[in-house]
Write a structure and sequence with these properties.
Blueprint (H helix, E strand, L loop, with lengths): L1 H15 L16 E8 L3 E9 L16 E6 L4 E6 L5 E6 L6 E8 L2 E8 L6 E11 L2 E11 L7 E8 L2 E2 L4 E4 L7 E6 L18 E9 L1 H14 L21 E7 L2 E6 L2
Parallel strand pairs: 1-15
Antiparallel strand pairs: 1-2, 2-5, 3-4, 3-6, 4-5, 6-7, 8-9, 9-13, 10-11, 10-12, 10-14, 14-16
Length: about 270
């Protein structure tokens, strides 16, 4: 028995001596332009936001890009000039987008030009929103849900934002009608509070829920879908996160979307 203990000790020690220290290179990459823009079908101050990425070791503050030239044109011959507002890096024009029209973005910033285009889909309305009761291991859980009728004569893509007591869920919610074309849809949106928030991910009586729905084009669906795949993974699952494919040229990050917009609110009973 003593010999066995000695052999095991030597065996363990030999493996301990094989450890190798691996140095991970975390050098900062060159900053990249990030453009986030939406044109919707409401008469509001439409916004194009321009910022830059930061290095791995830098503080979580993204530099805003001022002094850019930002225009949006449509296939009807209209041009909209976006002016920088009081918030640096945010460019504004009060206008109303029209379903069926294609909008093209042109941004010149820091000597580089970036372009993108997006066609605003037809309007699809939510029928209602509500709460569905599910049972997990004998325990009831309430979940926000959207109810709508998907049109049968076209391909549709949807993006949703969920707020609970004015807190935006960290999940990304998207849907297409590839398998449900023309059906009555009931889409459940599971709430995910911010990671630094101590609020529960469960819905309780008297909670206020608000759901925004956007009808989006296929490129923007691909963008939000890629983000949803990453955000909905649990720890230690999947591959290393990557930037979703942007519809903006010249290797810019972000997106430019022409989409419809609707919002409904309800109270959990």
């Amino acid at each position: 028995m003593k010999k066995l203990i000695i052999y095991l000790s030597l065996f363990t020690f030999s493996f301990a001596g094989c450890k190798k220290i691996i140095s991970i290179d975390t050098e900062n990459a060159d900053p990249q332009i990030v453009i986030e823009g939406k044109i919707n079908d409401q008469l509001i101050d439409q916004q194009i936001k321009i910022s830059k990425t930061i290095g791995y070791t830098e503080a979580n503050v993204f530099p805003k890009v001022s002094g850019a030239s930002v225009t949006v044109t449509d296939n009807k011959g209209n041009t909209y000039v976006f002016k920088e507002g009081t918030t640096p890096g945010t460019y504004i024009n009060k206008m109303k987008g029209v379903p069926g029209v294609t909008y093209s973005l042109n941004v010149t910033a820091e000597g580089q030009t970036y372009t993108a285009s997006s066609k605003m889909p037809n309007v699809v309305k939510m029928d209602s929103i509500g709460v569905i009761k599910n049972f997990f291991f004998g325990r009831e859980r309430k979940t926000a849900a959207v109810f709508l009728k998907d049109p049968a004569n076209e391909t549709n893509f949807y993006h949703f934002n969920l707020y609970v007591n004015d807190i935006l869920s960290e999940r990304f919610y998207v849907n297409n009608d590839r398998l449900t074309n023309g059906n009555d849809l009931r889409l459940q949106l599971f709430f995910k509070p911010p990671t630094n928030d101590h609020d529960s991910d469960e819905l309780n009586s008297n909670d206020k829920i608000r759901i925004e729905m956007e009808c989006i084009d296929s490129n923007i669906f691909d963008y939000w879908y890629a983000l949803s795949q990453q955000s909905n993974r649990g720890p230690n699952q999947g591959t290393t996160p990557a930037n979703p494919t942007s519809n903006i040229s010249n290797q810019a990050l972000g997106y430019f979307s022409a989409n419809t917009y609707e919002v409904l609110s309800a109270t959990v009973k």
